[in-house]
Amino acid sequence: MSLRGAAQRRRSNPGQRARLLDCFVASLLAMTCGRYAGLPNDVRTRGFTLVEIIVALAILALSLNVILPTMSDALWRTGEAEAQAEAASLACSLLAQAGTAVPLAGGEASGQFENGFRWQLRITPYGLGDQAMPLRAYKVVAAVFWGDARREYSVALTTLRLAGNGAGQ
Q1: Which of 19, 30, 31, 35 shows the greatest Cβ crowding within 10 Å of its Cβ?
Q2: Total structural domains in the chain?
Q3: 84: Cβ contacts below 8 Å, ≥ 6 apart
């Protein structure tokens, strides 16, 4: 037998297709309207049994047991990544202020931003610093801290800046 012959036999039996369509429509009506009268015995829908409901709830509980910790961990990691990105941006801002708003001279400054992040700016002379040279290099370290008593996080950025050498001018 070929597949073509089977397909032709299916098409040539319209009575069977009509019975299947009637059965399908009747079962849809029974499910949506709740009418069971007049349906054949094999189409009647009685609902779910207690065992089926218990098995479905057990599967749901196991699925949630796996999914919820994963979602919680993902949310925590997202919050940490956002805090780290904000701290890096604040440290970059501190480095930009070194030499303009904050004079380049050896020393240390610290404070706290409005959003709760703490900062520290450390400026130290870099290298030997020949007194005869008109410029001097300074190492600038900007560190931003955040966290609580259990764990503290930090981001530190370092750069070199040139400033006038006071002795050589």
Answers
A1: 30
A2: 2
A3: 153, 155
Residue 11 within any structural domain of the chain:
yes
Of 121, 129, 117, 126, nearest to 98 by C-alpha is: 121
Closest CA to 92 of 156, 147, 150: 156
113-140: pLDDT as tens digits: 898 899 999 998 887 766 667 788 889 9
At residue 49, the 3 state secondary structure works out as coil
Sheet containing 107-112: order of strands: 107-112, 118-125, 135-147, 152-164
Please tell me the distance from the alpha carbon of residue 26 to that of residue 32, in angstroms, as a whole number: 10
Specify whether the backbone of 112 is left (phi greater than 0), alpha (psi in -120 to 50) or beta.
beta
- Domain assignment of residue 65, yes or no: no
